Amino acid sequence: MPARPPGSEIVDADMTEILARVGRPLATLSGGTVLVTGAGGFLAGYMVDALARANDEGLITPPCRLHLLMRSRPGPTHRLAHLLERADVDVLLADVNDDYPLPPGLTHVIHAASAAAPGAYRVDPIGTALANTAGLRRLLEHAAAEGVRSVLF
Predict the structure, then answer these.
(1) How far is C-alpha 6 from the chain's CA centre?
(2) Distances from the Cα of 124 to the Cαs of 8, 35, 116, 131, in angstroms?
(3) For 88-102, what is each residue's pLDDT tens digit?
(4) First to last CA, the chain
(5) What's the pTM?
(6) Which residues contact 17 (CB under 8 A, 6 or more apart)?
(7) Which of 35, 81, 99, 141 is in the most buried spot, having the most CB atoms within 10 Å?
(8) Is the backbone peptide bond immediately before 101 cis, with ω within 30 degrees of 0?
């Protein structure tokens, strides 16, 4: 397992508190397959960490499978590097605006892909808006066609 980056103890404490507050409802994900777009972002990364920890702590039994959609593969110092070798985690490299293959059997989608920096809005306002609109539309169409149970945007 890769070394955790500096500040990981803060994230670990946050995960303990998040799961203490939210833990029981996560059981609805049991045995499911969850796609998280923008998984490398701040909020989505916290969601991914919480779901992986809920899998570990038996709050999601059987564990859910996590598909993390990211534009680039996380390096060894990335905040989510500790999850990359897990059997319940897959990294999908794609931009949410592109035509990429969606994993089969999705039961839940968390759409958190967006360029969340003001500089990105100035450089590529159309691309930023597309992640939030066209990316969401594609996921919703897939969800409706494939019987996905829930979509969080």
Answers:
(1) 21
(2) 32, 25, 12, 11
(3) 999 999 988 888 899
(4) 31
(5) 0.90
(6) none
(7) 35
(8) no
